[in-house]
Amino acid sequence: MAIDLNLQAPSAAGLIWRVTRNDDPTSEAEREEILAAPGFGIHFTDHMVDLCWSEKGGWHRPQVEPYGPIALDPAAAVLHYSQEIFEGLKAYRHADGSIWTFRPDRNAARLQRSARRLALPELPTEYFIESLKQLIAVDGDWVTKKDEESLYLRPFMFAKEAFLGVRAAKKVAFYVIASPAGPYFPTGIAPVDIWLSTNYARAGKGGTGAAKTGGNYASSLLPQAEAYEKGCQQVLFLDGPYLEELGGMNVVLVTRDGRLITPASDSILEGVTVASILQLAKDRGLTVEQRKVTIDEWREGAASGEIVGAFACGTAAVLVPIGRLKSDDFEIVHDGPEATELAMSLRDELTGIQYGRVEDRHGWMLRLDA
Ligand SMILES: *Cc1c(COP(=O)(O)O)cnc(C)c1O
């Protein structure tokens, strides 16, 4: 492995980054083949970011290194007690070739909130953003030129201290890996069917629902499997009578008069996508309500024609209309065009900003390759 001294310069964040180039990178031909049909989360770029934290030394040894397996002590705390958090955002190529990301300060702040809840150290925002820039500096060629496609960035942090006693780890690792992401809906956007989980919860009061942590996903896998069995693609979780969210996406209801309603709860994950979609709606003069919403309100509203549709949003899919909510006892069907048209036009505006086609009025985009 050759250390690239040209890149070993002090960064904006003041850390000295060590860059070790992959001496067996993916060939251009192979990369083009992968980018022609990337799927999601299957292929990974040639490098990764790796930062260490220790109680004594704080954040140290920032580096970019060849993508590959991580050596862990079998007693590493994460393997036993799930002390882990992650983030997800995307790098987009604009028409002039430049590479950008969307509201990374939001992801950095959320990683800090997740860290507090999981008793992990907070990574400063400058280090978070610098780590994305460092990875793009070596793997920028992996950001596709194709519209609606991107490079998915996955920062994550975990307890690597080898210790079986139960307490917050004193040694922690932070990594960023990247994976080319194809169009989420290769055959065009179709409404999804959602299963209402009544026998499982995603999170409880005072739990970890508001943190982006692997454990929340682990506990959603069984209800998700149940949803598949019922012919649905996703699960909606409740907190008693109140709507929470899907396993990895936030939910918005659309009323006949064009109001957008999204659940407020301490146990849902604050999505960057939903916040941005709702901001764009407010910019259009639409009313946005963030408040408690019961499943009965949705059911009765759908029956009376007051609620005309619903959609789910998150970074990976951006926005998906919900065609049906199914449960053991009832079914809500949204097959009218109004809500879907509104949702799709908000989606187009958001992706327009992300891909540089629409003016970035709010200053949401950050350039990663300069
Ligand atoms: C990541 C995530 C979301 C969506 O957040 P975005 O920032 O919009 O990608 C929603 N719910 C859960 C549980 C998540 O983990």
Describe the structure.
The two termini are 26 Å apart. The protein has two domains: 2-181, 2-Layer Sandwich (D-amino Acid Aminotransferase, Chain A, domain 1), CATH 3.30.470; 192-354, D-amino Acid Aminotransferase, Chain A, domain 2. The chain has 370 residues and is of the alpha+beta class. Strand 5 (89-93) and strand 6 form a beta hairpin. The protein is 26% helix and 29% strand. The protein binds pyridoxal-5'-phosphate (PLP).
- Structural class comes to alpha+beta
* CATH topology heading of the largest domain: D-amino Acid Aminotransferase, Chain A, domain 1
CATH class of the largest domain: Alpha Beta
Helix content: 25-40%
Shape summary = globular
Radius of gyration: 21 Å
How widely separated are the two ends? Answer: 26 Å
Give the arrangement of secondary structure elements.
Blueprint: E1 18-19, H1 28-36, E2 47-54, E3 58-66, H2 77-81, E4 84-86, E5 89-93, E6 99-102, H3 104-117, H4 125-139, E7 150-159, E8 171-181, E9 192-197, H5 214-218, H6 221-229, E10 234-239, E11 242-246, E12 250-255, E13 260-263, H7 272-283, E14 288-291, H8 295-304, E15 307-314, E16 318-326, E17 331-333, H9 337-354, E18 365-367
Parallel strand pairs: 1-3, 9-10, 9-16, 13-14
Antiparallel strand pairs: 2-3, 2-8, 4-7, 5-6, 5-7, 6-18, 7-8, 10-11, 12-13, 12-15, 15-16, 16-17
Helix pairs in contact: 7-9
Bound molecules: pyridoxal-5'-phosphate.
